[in-house]
Backbone:
């Protein structure tokens, strides 16, 4: 019987032909792969089980358990999961353009319209996680937000500010044209390695996430819940609009203090041309008190977001 299982596993692994490496984490390497059964490309997150302790192994199984329950157009889909003696294979839908992070690096920062195009889709994913699945992601950041590229045809639709022209200010007529995004199509939220299922009213205590994106209640070691994703959403939105994070310091203690106090600024000159409405939305997300912070529903009712959604509906 064991032999039969071993044979089945071998066949399952042979189903996926690993191609080039497309990403890397602490214990994992992500490959583009060819699924010989569905005859399509997939992403395989290959995890070194042999380097992990039992708690870390349990975390992988939890990541998969959560992913298995999720079904949303803005969330990376789980296709298959295989466990061998040495490895875990998490087979996922391949997202063509990789991380939004690399795009920010390339273009320095995004126009307000492109930022909204991205952040709204991330928020759709969070809305599903928070309101439907009862899941807190806990590691929302540009490195874990993937996108599918779209072909940008006329140069007129390229309204995002390019690095060679960082002060390009879009004129009025450019707005609606940009709804498709500058080469960025569908956004997919990935990496559920730190995500957690929450029962209603339940809260979490384990400090985790990535410093710089963690909410004040986490760095202060208080109980926390879904609100931490809203804080991280604020960090991501801030970065999209200006190209650098709201909280940054080389010294961890200083950084931790800044986050705990919610001390950030709309630095000049980078924020000079960004609208007050956009700043208002960022401020409501980066609110220290989790009870006063925007929930996901508040976010969709924010004027800067709601008016954009209204405009894009009309444009279609
Ligand atoms: P880790 O938990 O190690 O951070 P991730 O799931 O974030 O692992 O994957 C690491 C990197 O691999 C990502 O930041 C991304 O660049 C790439 N990657 C992961 N999953 C996919 C996918 N489904 N499609 C395309 N790229 C992916
Ligand atoms: Mg990651």
Residues:
């Amino acid at each position: 019987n064991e032999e039969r299982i071993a044979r089945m596993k071998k066949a399952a692994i042979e189903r996926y032909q690993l191609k080039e490496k497309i990403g890397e984490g602490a214990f994992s390497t992500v490959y583009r792969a060819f699924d010989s059964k569905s005859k399509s490309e997939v992403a395989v997150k290959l995890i070194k089980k042999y380097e992990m302790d039992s708690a870390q192994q349990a975390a992988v199984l939890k990541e998969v358990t959560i992913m298995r329950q999720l079904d949303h157009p803005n969330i990376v889909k789980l296709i298959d999961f295989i466990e061998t003696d040495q490895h875990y294979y998490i087979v996922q839908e391949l997202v063509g353009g990789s991380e939004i992070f690399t795009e920010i690096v390339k273009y320095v920062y995004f126009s307000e319209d492109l930022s909204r195009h991205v952040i709204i889709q991330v928020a759709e994913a969070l809305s599903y996680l928070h309101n439907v699945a009862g899941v807190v992601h806990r590691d929302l950041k540009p490195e874990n937000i993937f996108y599918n590229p779209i072909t940008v045809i006329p140069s007129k639709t390229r309204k995002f500010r390019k690095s060679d022209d960082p002060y390009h200010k879009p004129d009025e007529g450019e707005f609606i044209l940009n709804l498709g995004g500058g080469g960025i199509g569908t956004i997919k939220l990935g990496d559920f390695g730190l995500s957690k299922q929450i029962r209603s009213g339940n809260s979490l205590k384990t400090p985790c996430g990535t410093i710089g994106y963690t909410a004040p209640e986490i760095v202060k070691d208080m109980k926390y819940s879904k609100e931490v994703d809203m804080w991280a959403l604020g960090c991501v939105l801030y970065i999209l609009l200006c190209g650098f994070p709201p909280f940054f310091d080389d010294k961890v203690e200083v950084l931790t203090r800044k986050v705990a106090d919610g001390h950030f600024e709309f630095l000049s000159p980078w924020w000079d041309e960004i609208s007050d409405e956009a700043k208002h939305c960022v401020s409501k997300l980066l609110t220290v008190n989790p009870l006063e912070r925007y929930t996901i529903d508040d976010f969709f009712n924010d004027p800067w977001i709601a008016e954009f959604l209204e405009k894009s509906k009309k444009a279609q």
Q: What stands out?
A: Confidence is low (pLDDT under 50) at residues 152-181.
